[in-house]
Structure formats: C-alpha cells, structure tokens
Amino acid sequence: MSDILLQTGGLGFGYPQRNGLFGKPTLREVIKGVDLAVPRGSVVGLVGESGSGKTTLGRLLVRLLKPTSGGIQFDGLEIGQLDEAALRPLRARIQMIFQDPQSSLNPRLRLGTTLTRPLGVHGRLKGKRDQRERAAALLSLVGLPSDFAYRYPHELSGGQRQRAGIARALALEPDFIVADEIVSGLDVSTQAHILLLLKELRARLGLTMVFISHDLSVVRVLCDDVAILHHGEVVESGPVARVFGAPQHAYTRQLLAAIPLPDVEPGWLDESSVVSPQQQGSAA
Ligand SMILES: Nc1ncnc2c1ncn2[C@@H]1O[C@H](COP(=O)(O)OP(=O)(O)OP(=O)(O)O)[C@@H](O)[C@H]1O
C-alpha cells in the first residue's frame, strides 16, 4: 500500500467558452499541469488568490469535474476519465465539504434524515431504529446534541450548520475529503471551534484531506503540507513550515507579504485553548 492516497500528474482542466454567436466553443484553461501528492492521513492546504483555480481543482480531485488532460490516481486506481457508473463505488470514499453548508443540507428535511440519507442510498441502514442511532452518533461526532436530528437547517447557527455539513460528509466514513473554504464567513471564535473539530476528527478517524483556504494562518495551524496555486498552476509546494518559513517562489513571497501571518504559536489550536461548545452551553 502506497503512502500516497491521491496523486495528480499533469492535471489540466478548461471550461468551455463560446466565441461570439457563431464561433466554435473552445476551452478556457484554468488548471494547468498540476502535480499534487496527498499522503495518507495528511492534511494538504491549497491556497491562492481568488480565481486562481482552487475550487476547480478541488472539484476535479473528487471527480465532480472531469480533467481535460493529465490523470488522478486514487488509492492506486486511475480515476481521471472514469464515467459516472464506474465512479459510483468510489463516491462513498471521496467527499467534499462546501463553504456554504446550505448546499448540502436540504432546507425541507430534518437533520437526522439528511445525515442518514447517504447511508440509505448505499444500503447501509437497517430500519428506523438504526437510522436514529446513526444520526445521533454522527451528531455526537461533530459535537452536536442528538435532539438536533429533529431540527431543520434554518434552526441552526452558522457554526452548527457547518458541523452538520461535516457530519454529512463523514456519514459514509470516507477516506478522502476536500474541504472548500469551510471556515470562511464564520466568526473567529466559531472558526477556531471548527478547526479544532477537524483536528480531532483527523486524529480519531485518520482522515486524509485537502483543505482549500485563502487564509494562510488557518492553513498554518491545520495543514502538514501546502500547495500554492497561481493562475491554475502549482508554483510551490511542500511542508507548511518550509513553504511559509522559507518561500522559494516570488508569488509565495508576495502572498505571504500581502497577508501577514498573525504571531501565533503553532500549538495555539490546542484543546486547552478553545472552550468547547458543551462548556459554552451551546454548540458553536
Ligand atoms: N462554471 C464555470 N464556468 C466557467 N468558468 C468558471 C466556472 N467556474 C469557475 N470559472 C473560472 O475559472 C477560474 C478559476 O475559478 P475557481 O472558482 O476555481 O477559483 P478559486 O481560486 O476557487 O476562486 P475563489 O477563491 O474566488 O473561489 C476563474 O477564472 C473563474 O472565473
């Protein structure tokens, strides 16, 4: 078994674009020749300014998009050109969490139904009681009380919704998760709770993750490795301490200068430094 769970080689992607009313559509390349390796059990940060291609690359990695060139190897299997039927058995193993959990939480369904629906789809539910127990276990995994199973998404705070989004992604016990800007839009204290939760889940479940963020300080506390994306190309990658401590590429230096890292110790996100939702009285 290789130490690398997911690897891309020369990965490229272009969105079709119309050229005038009668012109033939062409591809506008937004991901170019990306070589990325995600070791098992690691969290790899993907950073870059707005429009650099982070979301597109994330969607390629989970095969919501099909590459226009290059390949993606997942657990030794080339998945870049697989069609939907061939991808189906892999879908449970690869999940994406979005910035806006609204998109993964159906507003008309109670949380318990949303969380356990993927289990039902994959034939892993044994009746109503099992469904209730699985929903409670998933809620507890992300620090939410079990009676939240009866709530609708609009009855949750932003942080609670993001916890629910994480629970939904974890329902099928995936091996690989792409998290796309999942703490953007949350206040700083809620961000810290969610990051701490991810750290705990990672340790407990041995998750392998690509963590997309424009916030370098968040990447520094959570990620082992980081890849810097610029105009669809990875211009630099490696261990976070090395890339942020001694950036080699001019663009990385520019990014670091533009977004100064707060002067925090790498260990600031320890359990002792963050009040848990239970301690606070309500789940953040
Ligand atoms: N569905 C689409 N159709 C056509 N072009 C798109 C589509 N989605 C994104 N793009 C273009 O692809 C490029 C990369 O966009 P992408 O959203 O991947 O970047 P990003 O780094 O995630 O940006 P942000 O941080 O703002 O979300 C941009 O130029 C964008 O305009």
UniProtKB/TrEMBL annotation:
It comes from the Bacteria. InterPro entries: AAA+_ATPase (IPR003593), ABC_transp_ATP-bind (IPR050319), ABC_transporter-like_ATP-bd (IPR003439), ABC_transporter-like_CS (IPR017871), P-loop_NTPase (IPR027417). Residues 16-256 form the ABC transporter domain. Pfam families: ABC_tran. GO terms for molecular function: ATP binding. Gene3D superfamilies: P-loop containing nucleotide triphosphate hydrolases (3.40.50.300). Keywords: ATP-binding, Nucleotide-binding, Transport. SUPFAM superfamilies: P-loop containing nucleoside triphosphate hydrolases (SSF52540). CDD domains: ABC_NikE_OppD_transporters (cd03257). Belongs to the ABC transporter superfamily. Involved in beta-(1-->2)glucan export. Transmembrane domains (TMD) form a pore in the inner membrane and the ATP-binding domain (NBD) is responsible for energy generation. This is ABC transporter ATP-binding protein. It comes from Bradyrhizobium diversitatis.
